[in-house]
Amino acid sequence: MRALASAPTPATRGVVHRRARTRAHRARPRASASDPSSSARPPSARYEKTWSNPTGNVLTDVVLGVVWAAERPFTWNAIDVGGKMSVVRLRDGALWVHSPIDLDDATRAAIDALGSVKHVVSPNYEHVKWAAQWKEAYPDATLYGCPGMRAKKPGIPWDAEVGEDGAPEAWGGEFDVALFDCEVNPFTSTPFFNEVVFCHAASGVAFVTDVFWNYPGGDDVPPGTRLWKFGMDRVYLPFYRAAMVRDREKFARAREKVLSWDFDAALPCHGSFIPRGAKDALRRHLAL
C-alpha cells in the first residue's frame, strides 16, 4: 500500500476553529471537536479534499497548539482506507511524531514551522515505510520502534525500542504507554502488529494505530471505503478476537491499562478523530 496526495504549494499548518478545554493542574488544552462551519482558512498548501482529508490541510489542529493530525489518503486495492500521522508539541517545545508519513515538501515545511522534531515513533510492525526517511531528514531526532523492530526491520536505523519499559525519560513524563504483544498471525504463529498504544496525559488524547480504527459510514464516504468499514468491523474484528489474540489474559491486562488512563479523545491512524467519548469506544472495540 502507498499513500497518495496531490502536489501542494508551500506549506503552513491548517487551522480550524474548535472548542478548547484546559486541565487545571497542567493548564494545557484538551481535545475538542472541529467546527466545519469555520471560515478560518489561512493561505496555505492544499491537498485534494478527500473523505480522509476533508479540509485538504497539510496539518490540522485537533488540540490547539499542542496536537496536530496529518491526514492523507491511503490506498489498498484502489480503496482509500485513510491514514493519519500525529504530531505533539511537548512542554519543552520538542515535537513528538507518531506513525510517520511521506515527508514531502509541504509536510516538512509545516512540521518545521511548528518546532524541532526530537522523537519519531513507528508504533507497530506495519507503520514503518517512512521511518528511515524521517531519520535522514532529522538525524538528531530519536527514531523509536515497537519491541522487536530492530530484529524485524534491521535495514532501518532505529535508535531505540519503546513499549516494554514504559515511556523514555526524554519524553518528560508526558506519555503513558501500553504494549499489545499478545496477538499472532494465525497462519504463521509469528507476532503480528506488536503495537504500542500511547496517551498524552496533558491533552487527554490517546494515539492508536491498528488495534483500533474509527471508519465513518456516512453517505459522504466512498462506496469502497464503506465496504472496507463493513469488512473491518464485521469480518476482521471478530476474526482478530477469536483467532489472532492468543494470550487473552495479556491482552486484557493491556486493555485495562489503556482504560485506566485519563483521556477522552483518540486520534487513530485509520478513521476519524474522536474528540470525546473515546474511552468508551476503545472499551467496546477491545472487548474479547
Give the radius of gyration. 18 Å
Q: Choose one word for the global shape.
A: globular
Largest sheet: 7 strands, mixed
Structural class, by secondary structure, is: alpha/beta
Q: For the largest beta sheet, what order do the strands appear in spatially? A: 4-5-8-9-10-11-12
Query: Uncertain regions: pLDDT < 50 for 5+ in a row?
Result: 1-43
The secondary-structure element order is EEEEEEEEEHEHEHEEEEHHEH
What's the number of helices?
6
The proportion of strand residues reads 15-25%
What is the residue-averaged pLDDT?
86
Distance between the termini: 29 Å
In which range does the helix fraction lie? 10-25%
What's the number of extended β-strand segments?
A: 16
What features would you describe in this structure?
By secondary structure, the chain is an alpha/beta fold. Helices cover 22% and strands 23% of the residues. The chain has helices at residues 105-114, 131-137, 149-152, 223-244, 248-259, 278-285; strands at residues 2-3, 21-23, 28-30, 60-63, 67-72, 74-76, 79-80, 83-89, 95-98, 117-122, 142-145, 160-161, 175-180, 195-200, 205-208, 265-268. The strands form four sheets. Strands 4-5-8-9-10-11-12 form a seven-stranded mixed beta sheet, covered by helices on one side. It has a four-stranded mixed beta sheet with strand order 13-14-15-16, with helices on one face. Strands 1-6-7 form a three-stranded antiparallel beta sheet. Strand 4 and strand 5 form a beta hairpin. 43% of the residues are buried. The model is unreliable at 1-43 (pLDDT under 50).
